[in-house]
## 1
Amino acid sequence: MKKILVICLACASAAAASAQIRVGREGQLSGSVETNTIYYVEDKAIAGSAGSTEYDSDFGSHTFLKLDYNWKGLTVGAQADVFLPSMRGYDITDYGKGKYDIALGAAYVKWQDKNYFVQGGTIFDQLGSGLVFRSWEDRALAFNNALLGAEAEYDFGSYVKVKAIYGKPRLYFDWADSWVGAADLSVSLADIFRMKSAALSLEGSFVNRHQSLGAFTFAEDYGLTSPDLNMYSARLNFDWKGLSLRGEYVGKSDDVSKETPMAVAGNAWLAEVGYNRKGFSFLGSFRRLEHMLTYLVVNDNAVLGGLGGGNVLNYVPAMTRQYTYMLANLNPYQVQADGEVGGQVDAYYALRSKSDRSKYWNFHFNMSTYYTLKERIGEHRLLWRDVNFDVERQWNKKLKTSILFSRQEWDHEHGFGGSEQTYASNIFVGDVTYKFDRRKSLRAEVQYLYSDDYEGDWVAALVEFNMAPKWSFFVSDMYNIDSTEEGIISGTAENHFYNVGAAFSYKQTRVSLSYGRNRAGFVCSGGVCRFQPAYTGLNFVLTSSF
């Protein structure tokens, strides 16, 4: 059945990848296809380095085929996930059914009217910030924990909104041995009291995970006696002119994880304040987490960490700056959901020329810092600190420059080891873009990382040439100047990481091809990370929609 669905989706996507399809007078068919394929090349320079792993296949491919049909308030959709086989560095590689896997990534029917909607099939949704519940798909992580069940929402005018969800969560290619039920309530006090200049709402959520403890051999030894895990969330949202305030408290009943083998209760605090006015914006956030790692299913494998990052019910991203520059993203922060406290501040200021709108300055300052909870190890130990700023200058219609500095410090044992040693990196980035005309532009990056710790100093560079709207070419290199015994890099050749590639776009279709050597490390998407082993290979990516 799955293979037939894949063939049908592939044919429909290929036949209509560049055109809108109207079915009947009011029906509309849309879809997309995305494929990411890597051919791995033997590279003796990285074969013995830490993070490199032996695999059976020299080929990996992830393909996602999706179709949606809309008619008035009715929407029907389906998605096939094809792994032929899965690429290296993904949890789905280790927990798949076999070398070649096909999964039903989504299949649903939804009816939406003015005040309500109902949906059956696979459910993707989030309650509040996601601390109690989030079912979502992230293709960069090959992550999908959709619920197979039903969802309904009703809006009582603009005053009260209620939502209910129930289903069985997806765990890689199977369904977890648990059931999840959730309810959410949102009350708009601003509409009730007719507040015209402000928005004020109170929200709350309740989530229940129910599973038989039969598969958990040592459940009673861990102090887990109930098949039910309950979580609740209370939230406050306020907006007035340029000011915004957000607050959330989460409570959690007794649960276990690999970091807390004994059943303990959890809680979380989240607060955000934002302000923007006339070119200035500010956002500050604070978060405290205690025992907030929540599994889809708890059993002997789960508490030993044997089910990977896909076995997660809630969303706890790293609240730090997410970089695109190579050296600034060498060692991203790994959130400690079982115990951390800290926050982040972001400040922007834009200065525009009154006489020439093509000229401007953008100033940005960011800082994030996190510590272990004192309750865990008897003291607050630094987990992460990043202090950074960047300045962007648009000189005229042709030339734009940007400089960035980041000072990063982190505990390489994430607060769980006996050592209090931290590593520090100082990263400098220069970025220049020059437009020759409306279609052709050249962008260049130079980067330098200075450090007395870990892997020592790095240099990196990138050159990108664009011929809008169709062509783009790039070449980049990242080189480790120093080599230390504590680093994962040794020798000379594997300190050199190069990439070269090109991309072609036509209407809604984009194709890219690149070749290079990639360093072992964490790859992050939306604040959630996975570990990527070192590899050298040829990478082909295609995305198309209609």
Note: The longest helix spans residues 2-15.
## 2
Amino acid sequence: MNVMSYRFASYVLGGALLIACGEDGIMRPPENGEFFDSSHSAARNWNETLLSAIRRDLARPPVHARNLFHSSAMMYDLWAVYDDQADTWLLGRSVGDFSCAFSDTQRNALRSETRDANSDRSIAISYAMQRLITHRFETSRARGYVRERASQLLAEMGYDGDFSSRDFSEGPSEERAAALGLYLADCIIELGLQDGANESNDYANEIYQPANVPLQPEQPGTPGMDDPNRWQPLELQVSIDQSGNRVANQPAFIGAEWGQVIAFALPPDAFTNFERDGATWPVCHDPGPPALLRAAGDGEAMPEEYQWNHSVPLYWAAHLDPDDGTMWDISPRSVGNSEELPAGVADLRDFYDALDGGARDRGHAENPATGEPYEINEVPRGDYTRVLAEFWADGPDSETPPGHWFAIVNEAVSDHPSVQKRYRGTGPELDDLEWDVKVYLALGGAVHDAAIAAWGAKGYYDYVRPISAIRFMASLGQSSDDTLPSYHAEGLPLVDNYVELVTDTDELAGPDNEHVGKIKVRTWRGPDFVGDPDADYAGVGWILAEQWWPYQRPSFVTPPFAGYVSGHSTFSRAAAEVLTEFTGDAYFPGGMGEFVAPQNNFLVFERGPSVNVVLQWATYRDASDQTSLSRIWGGIHPPVDDIPGRRMGIIVGQDAFERADTLFAGTP
């Protein structure tokens, strides 16, 4: 075979995979292709391919958290098998009731035969990822794109797409590595068919049924809503999910039974099994019931807390006007370094600024990387809040919240020019491949376990979303004064300049005064006021509360699953805990992470922002906290969904990192 200098060339001769090396016998990557970046590790290239596939698939956060974890664990195992110390997660181990056979003798043989461990690792990772991604997206509407991209990446890396052997006991080390990759991918696929996710039935729920009839948001109120504590599905004229995909007009609850999926590091004794509707619902790190309008099951009625919590997104929606003249400093000197999280539902009022927005942040005195104070970053509040809501919503073209944190790791951490790739901030610098597979394992395990914990709570508590709660209370009346019209103990509280009664002199009274006595709110006016998203923005004004709309597209409105607890809060805090531990630094490299939303070229469903908005975070936890607040401004979550999710994320993230750390050290 002719040797090709400094680039891979692959051939099939008699069914054998042959890979050409450089003149000195050392294999080197080819030049950059459309999908292959030779400056990145194989793990990074394949993670980017997976994120690209997720962006084109249905927006299913728990499903894609699982995809990110399984791929990360697989890549890590294929790195660890060639290491003297590290232990594997699945290869040669049992997870649940599934075992992936692999002996110490086989491991030693692979290690002794390899000429270049990182080259063989890259080969194994590439074949494994091509196999797993193609399988996981084989029924996706993006399957053609995914198959083509994965195949092209494999080819651009110089590997033969027709190689199919699973026999890693014979042949050159390159062939053994490729076969091992395919073998482990088969194990991951088999595990995935029995891990409780119901993958073989496209992750459908088997027992869950909604308690309320669907809400048609184009119609006022919530007619037919029987239980104001429980989630209400939507029935839309056109339904487009968070990734921009056209879906069923009545989207089903995604992942209602996800609490039963096999975890990475969730301890068995952290689960509580609850009974509801004749079924068992496992909940990990049970947060206890949310604020209920009416007593239900084990939950006590907390009507005043329910009313306050679901009014906060209503109040914050009044902050979504860039023309209101309010300017905010959104730099780390003012935003971030949040105070201690509140302990219970009754303490939430002291943590959030219900009317003016935000939480009790202390800010940071200086950038520890430069020793200088953070510069003021002042923008219109209405631009900041809208950018925040859309940036952290991860849509459209969404890699979903767990994937968003992988993108942050790749672009804001690993690619930062000042980053030193030292595990926990100490010791020797890791090469790119070792850094990537290790951070992906810890982060993937964290977001996967966060999905199991958060969706376990979502499935069991089945809690209402703000659009349903606000409209339901508004349809009853006001709860503040029994001497005023439309009093009802379960109605919306009146707040001057935010929530008031319609009078006969009000422009909302209607031609026959049919709306007199109803509740009006000063809030984001909704999609009916946006004719052309490239030219118009709704602004803030008075509307009937029964027609309130979260700051979302009319084809999306609110996610197709229950609110409590916030998945964004759980995913993000778990990720922040992992990155803090993994990098050995609470701060982003250089002391600050940034994202630029360009003027009038970022918002999706209305014009804006009116100026360039630079989101900034000093620490990973600051970014996580900003994620949580964004969901309140977006009208998706009340505070009661947020804090339990953050608390859950702290525990989940720390446990996932500790589990990963024991695997790295070979002491599971």
Note: The CA atoms of residues 523 and 654 lie 39 Å apart.
## 3
Amino acid sequence: MIPMRRVFLAQASIAAAAWFHPRSGLSFAETIDNNWEEQENTADRNTSSRFLQGNFAPVDRELNVPNLPVEGEIPKTLRGMLVRNGPNPQFHPKGKYHWFDGDGMLHAVSFTDDGVHYQNRYVATEGFLKEKRAGRALYRGLLEPPDVALALAGLNPYKNSANTSVVFHGNRLLALWEAGLPYELQLKNLETVGPTDFSGKVTHPFTAHPKIDPKTGEMVTFGYVPNEPILMMSEIDRTGAWVRTTKIPIDKPTMVHDFAITENYAIFPICPLRFEVSRLLSGVVPWHFDQSAPTRFAVVSRKDPTQVRFFEATTCFVFHLLNAFESHNAPSDTAQKPLGQIELVGCRYEQFPGSLNFGDSDDATASDQAVPYRWVFDLDSGRVREELLDEVPAEFPRINEAYTGAPNRYGFFGLGDDEFFHGFKKLDLRDGHASMIQMENGVHCGEGIFVPVPSSKDEDSGWLLSFVYLTITGRSELWIFDAKSFSPQPVAKVKLPGRVPYGFHGTWVPTISDS
């Protein structure tokens, strides 16, 4: 095989997997009904990876338990289902293990008039089912060189684990992994339906962070294809039907994890985390953070996605964005109407965080601390204004999603520690005031998901829901906080039937259909 063809196949296969993130069987373990039983703790497996120990360790059982005990009182208008995704390998890994490698597992808590219900289930992806049949791990993880035989055959050397996030749109629940297609799930029992490509129209990787426009119901999504290099932005209407896909050229192969939308624009952070084929062919992870290059933001017109403007900002890395919205400049002296500006808020790292090191010594020493940050893009002058919003490190930002793409006042963030998160911050973006909820020693939490009070006109009227791990007992609970008062005392604690490992992102389904 000539070298150029080898390079092309390697590029194509890695582009299909594209890497990253926060990345099913033919029959499942018998569910447990009406039986309060502890899931097997696999934290003592013989491994050096911290991501297979403690509350990062996977659980082995799939449970289905109604009538959960509750301390406190569940709000009467809190009705629906919280679903959270995260990595949970079904077999001991093949080689070195990274947290992003594990098979997707959904943990769901449903609130009904008849009580609170818990269930968890693997996402039965193609790779999960192959390994289930084989009875062992077949795929290498992100810390291992890619399988050259698969790459040279033009096949994806990584497994689509569907383990990063979940979205409910067009009456469908989708498990997401940014380097592949989503997997559809049955809402009632979380069983896997299969991968979905929207009737063959979406052929690119599908971000773990699609955005739903609350005014139109449209879902905007994208994928990055390192070997071209391009972004592919797709629009799905409120019914779940594909509308269009547009190629957005970028200057160099780059990983883009999240984005934001406004009424008229989509904004993509183009950070200098570069994909280099030479590194791939030498057997190391093909991604490298270029500290000498600036971060650019692509501002794409939603009305005509072929219209793209790039804004240059200070070098940084961004995993997660909170929100963006349009504001207006003062009237100009000319007859031409000013274009205005876009305000974007997210969590900014100085460079790619060190704890997610994939082989570079520079990355290994990089700070893991992200801080709330604002970028303002002036559409008239092309200039960018940058502003630190708060010095306390914070990640996994969430908002009241009724304000997606519109001016919002409040952001909710996780407060990190050496374990995972130890509390939450509510940041007032208008006056800069920050309120904190701090967990006591030995208590750690995951992402805080905002659930609004139905029909309320107050942006922060609602609850913050999070899975919490109690190190003393080794068990998990779901805690419910009043998001408006932001009192550190939960209004309710749901006692779960077993341990819920740390995971990534979740969503709230306000009503449960019979689908």
Note: Residues 3-509 form a domain with the Methylamine Dehydrogenase; Chain H fold (CATH 2.130.10.10).
## 4
Amino acid sequence: MPKDLPVSNGSFLLNFDSDYQIRDIYFPYIGQENHSNGHPFQFGVWVDGQYSWMGPEWKKDLRYHNNSLVTDVFLKNETLELELKCSDVVDLDMNIYIKKIEVNNLTNKHRQIRLFFSHEFNLYGNEIGGTAYFDPRSCSIIHYKINRYFLISYRANDEWGVKHFGCGRRKASGELDTFKENENGELNGEASAWGTPHSSVSIWMELPAKGKANAYYWIAAGMSYSEVANINLEVHKITPENLLKRSSKYWQTWIHKESLQLEELPKSVTDIFSRSLLILRTQIDNNGAIIAANDSDIIRFGKDTYSYMWGRDGAFVAAALSKAGYSHACMKYFDFCARVLSKEGYLFQHYNPDGSLASNWHSWLVEGKEVLPIQEDSTALTLWALWIYYQSLHDVEFIRPLYSKLIKKAADFLVDYRDPQTHLPLPSYDLWEERYALHTYTVASVIAGLRAAANFANLFLDYSLAEKYNSVANEMTAEINNHLYDDKLKRFARSGSRIEGGYELDKVIDISLLSLTTLGILDPRDPRMISTAEAVREQLWLKTPVEGCARYEGDLYQRAEDSPNDIPGNPWFISTLWLAEYYIDHAENHEQLQATLPYLEWCGKNALPSGVLAEQVHPVNGSPLCVSPLTWSHSAYVWTVMLYTEKDKMLKKNNNKGDN
């Protein structure tokens, strides 16, 4: 089930699924310690003796308020004759999640409405050894284990604090004790539970005929009882309504960038652009890690998550934010990379948000030989993104300490990690994390990384080192043509496996081949690139009602059983956007540039109503597949829109020169 609505402040993140249930709770790191473990925190309504959990019987519209990370949720139940309007946010300054609920009685009679909230915490990501209890000092429910505390309270009818509650334990069957009580409209008032505890609270509201009433519900997160109790007191002092307003105002101010000049783009494009920037911000931990995705549903497939910092994904996000003028949002990311970089100068596959090494999906042995279990592009793209950051702010004071501990260290590794005969990089794992070989995309990223390192070396007057990095980049660029171009097919090959005298080429068409242009290695009008791009467009563009671009021929990842047999793979947002990038680079006039807009509009059509972009979508019905949101999808969208606006300015400038 896709996660439609993430809300976050960089330390505390909650995800809502398409049934408007809280499904993921991360604290104190974004992406580490999911305290719900993917279990739904259910939300229901009791009225006139009937009970209804949020589900198919509710009409739901899950969105955000414009230019904000405050949600704008509409819920309607025809049978119960009720409408609910909800707003959710995590406060900027305190680790407190706030929900406002406006209940609208659609009948002509006075009614009592009871809202129910259930909490199935799995603190530290497991169900063992927790405690839930009613705290009479704060009039709240508290769940805690070791150094993780969550306080739950509410305000309704001008009264503060929890009045109706029940704590229980999960049965052997997995059923929760309080669920049946919720459905009866009453909670048993059980004041504590331990082991595998859960809890429920209920808000009772009196609604006049055709009338409305408001309630506020919140969850505070902290490391101790005193911390969450103090946050709760601050909520009383500031009021939940003012907390919502201050967060909304902040995000509206944050997203407002007059300098972006997006006026000439369709509103459907600019809306997803703004939403993408905001979604990216929710996935960045305050300690620097940029997380790939925080959707716990992926655990069902591989018993692992996307809640890690990949150098590849992080670099693309940092580059996109920098290009859009949000460089400060990713400053700590580069410090994070410098901290976790190995002593040899490379990044491993991925890291936990606290900087520790995450699970590694790559083997140290390939065909019985020891190899480095890395994707070399992650190291290289970090340098590429850092130069884009510098171009945005010209913040030499920030860059200076990174020059020795990140830039030179990583660049020297890229120089040394080469085949002595072909001068191309040694094999590593590909960007899709499936194959070990020499990959055209990896070569392109290494060249881009070395060019960035050379720019930094020149910046610090380290001319001999700049010449060295540029020389290696030039050598690699020449060897791409010698070893990775197929003369018979008249296009580049995806990969090469080392054989005597060169490489045995993998001729599968892959969207990543376009990186030769999108990373600035080859001219998009180079005949070899034109023929490569034509093959990509012809073979990877889906001929289904949804359309979109697949990653590569024969891609089976997350392919649904009801997919057509003749498709190359599912359409991905990044693949579709990389195709757009190539054509934007290739455009020589406004007509050609405007022809790329449908690729951006395709993303909007296949986004969730909230504006969230998944990793990929179903090839026939367009439903989101795999994780949602995926930071890489949103960063690719931001990057592509910025490329479009830059190209538009350049073409207009050239036209003005021609008129003169």
Note: Residues 120 and 198 are 5 Å apart (CA to CA).
